[in-house]
Amino acid sequence: MQLLDTLDAALRELDAQHLRRHRRTAESPCAPHVRVDGRNMLAFCSNDYLGLAAHPAVIAALAEGAARYGAGSGASHLISGHSRAHAQLEERLAAMLAPHLEQARALYFCTGYMANLAVLGTLAGKDAEIYSESLNHASLIDGARLSRARVQVYPHADMDALAKMLAASQAKTRLIVSDGVFSMDGDIAPLRELLALAEHHGAWLVIDDAHGFGVLGEHGHGVLEHAGLRSPHLVMIGTLGKAAGVAGAFVAAHATVIDWLVNRARPYIFSTAAAPAQAHALLASMDLIEGSEGSRRRAHLRALTQQLQAALQLRHWHYRATRTAIQPIVLGENAQALRAAAELQRHALWVPAIRPPTVPPGTARLRVTLSAAHTADDVDRLAAALNQLDSEAGHAS
Known about the structure:
The protein is an alpha/beta fold and about 400 residues long. It has helices at about 1-15, 55-70, 75-80, 85-95, 110-125, 140-145, 160-165, 190-200, 225, 255-265, 265-270, 275-290, 290-310, 335-345, 375-395, and strands at about 35, 40-45, 105-110, 130-135, 150-155, 175-180, 205-210, 235-240, 250-255, 320, 325-330, 350, 355, 365-370.
């Protein structure tokens, strides 16, 4: 069949470029020590930054939520699927972000991808302009494309280039759009400078805080707390399947923005609401994030990050040390990254090889993600293996 032959040829081309993806099957809960495809592994690849995905309190809350609300919501939020658990979670999230957003409200989504599509597609339109960070997540890129707005991409963290674009704009509605923590590089956006530009030019500043919420800030409220920001220009998207350990996402902004999304955001209006049990479990996650245990876990995560940075002695691979749980090691070519990941697997270490289009061509890497559930011994084991592989790579060259 010609249609299948065309797809087979395209897959072979992916193989030739070392770009074909394959799934692995986890047989145990999300944790540093997992069983994958029948083998025990030490994992440095999840976004469970605080180790809450298998926390007993969150598991108990999920079970309690299922017993109270059932297995599913049954409809979209605007029909009959908006439960008391959803409402309580939105109220809690709004209270958490209230120090940073005037008249703060929050809206819960099934996924972060849906939230980003909703925000950009609803706040922008064919007469708007979007200024998108060059390293933004795919969901922001797709949201900008689907919005029908004119899109300009500014170079990574280049505030001068962004300022010139904004100064030249005649658009009535403008959106500056950026990751808070960049998912593949681990660095933090220049948030204060971005907000200053947004306020000066009367633009929205949309921040996707998927990798900062729960981790950054004294209380785990994310990049807005970390940078000490407050403004009605801010629209924040937070993910709840990473540091919060469950699933879903939220948008937090001025109450008027949230009302507009409820009435016009197609990904929200036309999607069945997530299971209320998930929202109920997330209330337990918020208690942990804001409480003393969350503070201890963030402190432990920072200590592990510092330990890894001190232990790595890489001479041939490019290690980009960051202040976040994401620690990238850039190798360059796709095949090289795949070989390194395979060698780590031989040592029962699960570190993913990240390749284009997720990262720019020529920057294939190992993406190490740390969790508060890791131990110092876990990090020592990883660092020793990476140092050994880097040394062997030098001898091979």
